[in-house]
Amino acid sequence: MNKLCFMSCLFGVFLNLFPFNPAAAEEKLRLTGSGASFPFPLYSAWFKNYSRDHKDANIDYQAKGSGAGVLDFINRTVDFAASDAAMTPDEIAKVEGGAVLLPMTAGEIVISYNLPGNPQGLKLSRDVYPDIFLGKITRWNDARIQSANAGLKLPDLPITVVRRADSSGTTFVFTHHLGAVSPSWRQGPGAGTTVNWPSSDKIVAAPKNDGVTATIKQTPGAIGYIEYAYAVGARVEMAELQNKAGRFIRPGAESGQATLATAQLPENLIAWVQDPDGEKSYPIATFTWMLFYQRNATPAKAKILRDVVEYGLTEGQKLSTKMGYIPLPENVVSAVRVAARKIQ
Amino acid sequence: MKIFEEDATSTQISRPPAQADYLLDRLFRGLATACAWFLLIVVGLLLGVIGVKAVPAISEYHLGFLTGTTWDVNKQTFGILPEIWGTLYSSILALIIGGFFGVTMAIFLTQDFLPARLALVFRTIVELLAAIPSVVYGFWGIFVVIPAIRPIADWLNAEFGWIPFFGTTLSGPGMLPAALVLAIMILPTVAAVSQDAIRQVPHRIKEAAFGLGATRWEAILRVILPTASTGIFGALVLGFGRALGETMALAMLVGNSNQLSLSLFSPGNTLAALLALNFPEAGEHEVPVLMYAALVLLLITLAVNMVGTAIMTLTSSQMRTDK
Prior knowledge:
With about 350 residues, chain A is of the alpha/beta class. Chain A has helices spanning about 1-15, 20-25, 40-55, 65-75, 90-95, 130-135, 145-150, 170-180, 185, 210-220, 230-235, 255-260, 300-320, 330-340; strands at about 30-35, 55-65, 80-85, 100-115, 125, 160-165, 205, 220-225, 235-240, 240, 250, 285-295. With about 325 residues, chain B is mainly alpha-helical.
């Protein structure tokens, strides 16, 4: 009896793995997209759900990186793309048929650390963390770190800075924030998807968010910047950062939404919050964009794309908190909804 | 034995090759030549395509690209000296470690130290190492190798810090963990090709050495290894080529820091890692620069292989004249 049950279960799994329905498969319209890897877990959940609920469409998304997404978009090898760094006016001008950029979700970048005894709630003030990443503060028991952390006993350990080795949207957002906070960062490494980090034995790099997370976990005395979702998933400690108003803020959905609410969205929906105002704002958060063509190949494709945007704005936002992203504030949702009508 | 007897009684042995044999021979020779030319053309095309795409960067940065030490996309300053250094340094370290163990293993597995069956098991395990994906090696390096060598590295730095090789503390990723993992990755190549080379040594040469009163180790070190040396050298060249081009495991373990340092514990960078990590997000200006770096890597690899082949031909022709 048990064996039979097991076999039928196995058979059921097998059927699920290979859905065989040729009639439906032929009618499906295939849409492909590529780009940013940061929102990939969320987007792939959206597209999977959408493709499951809509028998007429199948959407594939490849996480190649924001830069590759923008290139694919300009070369028209995809139906849509995604980018953490939006697009520059030059790039937008190159898009045949016009581009519509829609912020679809948002995320926070956290500063994670690994200290003996796993002390929680390390506080880093605005003048301290840029200097750590510049390699100017080199030991954990430095008086400048200690002064904001009266309750914590910080060890006499060298600080190992872990950064992204690959060029990435995460670095783009993080370095823009550091530049906004610290003049010496602005004049030194500057901001971009890759920057010229100070040369030091104690500044090492690892590829992708998971590489940085793993390296932080394996290195006593390490500090590094990763996406909030990865820090939650890997259970590494996150520092509280001092915002413009002077308060120390824990990363999380609530403080992230407070940050996004300070953003002034212009006509093209490209806005950066490099150093947000507001008492409750977490300092480092950003929108991430989906890129669509204004004039698409067929009206059917355009309709599905508009449908997907609507799905992302309604059902999709409900998924985001659970997966470590920040739900879009109401005013942004309505602005995106209006702009999505341009996809024709 | 039976086969030989049959051959001897039949008339086939003394019969001249038939027309069909000639044709088949010709056909095979033609096919082999075509394949050889095809390979040459592929390498030429690779060089050509990468070269053309690198032209804007070559004309802008000239040879200063090879001696520069910063990689700053914001300021459009590019130099790959640390990467060239890191590529060669990590590969040479890996070759020393992996080469030593690979050749030792080849001797161990071919010179009847083990029962034949057990030797086969070991050989299969070593060859299985080649099937493990690079990323897995990378994660294994982060989670196993780095914590394992950290205490040793810290001790070496504390006691022998005045020696340049131990001049810095280990931050985690660095040259030594990268070279160790790289050594394991080239081990199957070196071991397999060396075994083939050693097995090529005629049995009677070894027996002759024993006949002259040589001990087992004298026979191995003075007779078998020198006879197989061309093949073993070939194995090392192959392993070195593999080490030069390895991408993902190194990208995860080497630390990707633009530094020129002799220290084994310092983070460094390699050309292959630089390329793999920067292509996905590269902008219009960066792509030709990366192509230039790719061209340099390709030329280094070609040069290593050509020098290796030249040394092999020279030594083997010398050996022939010695006889």
